[in-house]
Amino acid sequence: MLTTKHPGVPLGAKRETLQDYKHLFKGIQWHEHHKHIVTSDGKRLSSVTATSGQAGKKHILVLYFQGNASSTPPRLPYLSTILSTLAKERAAMYTFLVPSYRGYWTSTGTPSQAGIERDLSAVFKLLETDPHYADTEVILWGQSIGCGIALKGWADYLRSGGLGVRVTGLILETPFVSVPNMLRALYPQRWLPYRYLSMFLWSTWDMKACAEVVKRGGGVQVLVVSAGMDEVVPADETVEVEELMRDMVGRERVESIFVQGALHVECAIRPQGREEIVRFIEGLSDIRSK
Fold first, then answer.
1. pLDDT tens track for 10-30
2. In the chain, how many domains are there?
3. Is the separation of the CB atoms in 161 and 132 below 8 Å?
4. 3-state DSSP call for residue 95?
5. Phi, psi for 172 (deg, rounded to 5)
6. How far apart are CA 53 and CA 32, in angstroms?
7. % pLDDT > 90, the chain
8. How confident is the model at residue 87, as a pLDDT?
9. Which residues have C-beta within 8 Å of that of residue 123, sequence separation ≥ 6?
10. Residue 114 sits in which domain range?
């Protein structure tokens, strides 16, 4: 999990199809795309989209950034459950967009932080230029390392002077502050060499480095989701993320939930986590509708 430079991510992912998991989609229709996200260095990113809810209502786009150890299709069943639950409330029309980083699933290229930053630029450009996403309000949802990826993508978009993508919410599921931070947390013993190797890591995804830029984003609500039995991210990391978010957007705009009994990848699968995520998204729909 600490690096994103792998020859194939994950092993066997390129053979996975949506059809393999379709029976778990709760009636949600996912559409597969291979050509509409092209990076500045010519890589083509695979992505999937699904839309549900009532047309003509406010359009909410949830942009999902996965963690490191899976491809897109296995994540769609629990995203389908959340999307189908949102649709029942009819508070808005909801679109979920799930891009795959370069080298992941069937996207071309090889993963690296520099490369994935190009991927993020291409994704935000799509949101800014595609008429389908005009007048949408965007919720960024990251899981694990995807939290730092989501925040870095938004920060770089703001640094570039981007104004067309309106981010109104952040869901940070089992986040950590940075890859070097995780390295020190996992290997605190000063006599071990691992804590001193952060300069050699292929990726950092440092959320603190995004803080000052994201402060200028304004008006964003944040939900920090932690797993009660997280076997990967230490509890202190999540607490530090919460404080960082409160400093970035204001204490009153940050809430946190603790999903009892959940392992690192289970927060959105467990009923408690799923219900809280749905409540947060619905709450943003209601706030922006007033």
1. 666 778 899 999 999 999 999
2. 1
3. no
4. strand
5. -115, 100
6. 19
7. 61
8. 83
9. 37, 45, 63, 99, 153
10. 29-289
DSSP string, 97-132: EEEPPTTBTT--S---HHHHHHHHHHHHHHHHH-GG
6 part of a folded domain: no
The predicted model scores a pTM of 0.89
Q: According to the model, what pLDDT value does residue 200 have?
A: 45
Q: How far apart are alpha carbons 177 and 87 in whole angstroms?
A: 33
Q: Is residue 238 a part of any domain in this protein?
A: yes
> Can you read off the two tokens belonging to residue 152?
């870095």
pLDDT digits (tens, 9 = 90+) for 87-109: 887 678 999 999 999 999 999 99
Q: Is residue 124 part of a domain?
A: yes
**Residue 154 maps to a domain:** yes
Q: What angle do CA 100, 9, 184 make, to 5 degrees?
A: 100
Residue 243 maps to which CATH number?
3.40.50.1820
On the 0-12 / 13-18 / 19+ scale of CB atoms within 10 A, 154 is buried
